[in-house]
Amino acid sequence: MAANILTSRCVLVTGATAGIGRALAREIRDLPTHPTVIVMGRRQARLDELAKEGFETVKFDMDTTPDKIKAFADEVVGKYPELDAVILNAGVQNMVNFAEPEKVDFSKISSEFNINYLAVVSMMAAFLPHFIKIGDSLQKERPALLVPVTSGLAMIPLAPVCNYSATKAALHSLTFSLRIQMENAKTNVHLLEIIPPLVESELHDAEGTTDSLSKFWMPLAEFTSIVMDGLKEGKIAITAGSATATYDRFEKPKENLKNGMMNVDIQK
């Protein structure tokens, strides 16, 4: 059986105070295996609410530096040594129009790139020493999972959110490569990627586009059900809605490349 969430004993979910992250945290907590679920977010009031539901909680803002992310990861591992899965869901989305360059806010572009890509990469790197170590000492039926959440826009970008699309494309590409690296090194660390379409979320509130997008998005409950099926199956690419057709057309053929030139060790 492929590596999957059913063997996980302790799961950290970032960006878990609302939307996709919170919904997945609740579903994972209710699995028959009853893993410990740690929810991470910026809003203390939301974290307090989740604590009342029985979750472990930790407050942390992804818009920070790699050294602080490393310190955070070390603290989490120290408190939860059985941690064996991280779902990297935290993200932001801003609209930007380069046709009006005088209105482009580069501080927002930088922050969005950091939260959606650099901080996610830093967090994966910070947890990998622990995951590789436990993978060496555990039975094969209990893998360690890194699960970045990208987007259908990683494959076909949407012009009004061009920087967001680019950050997700970068993370999607990196995930592909990290999966091969973990396999080549014969670790028990597995990369599963969640690739949402437009999904019911608070993500769009900041730009005031929620009302218009709500006419088209996939209901959160439907999306969560599909993702949980994929996590239980251990699919390396968990897609839904329009993102499935896009992935099957443009990305699925790449899965076979790991046995070809994409798998060459350039150091030899």
Automatic annotation (TrEMBL):
Oxidoreductase as UniProt keyword: yes
Pfam families: adh_short
PROSITE patterns for the chain: ADH_SHORT
Family: Belongs to the short-chain dehydrogenases/reductases (SDR) family.
Superkingdom: Eukaryota
InterPro entries: NAD(P)-bd_dom_sf, Sc_DH/Rdtase_CS, SDR_fam
Molecular function as annotated in GO: oxidoreductase activity
Protein name (record): NAD(P)-binding protein
Keyword line: NADP, Oxidoreductase
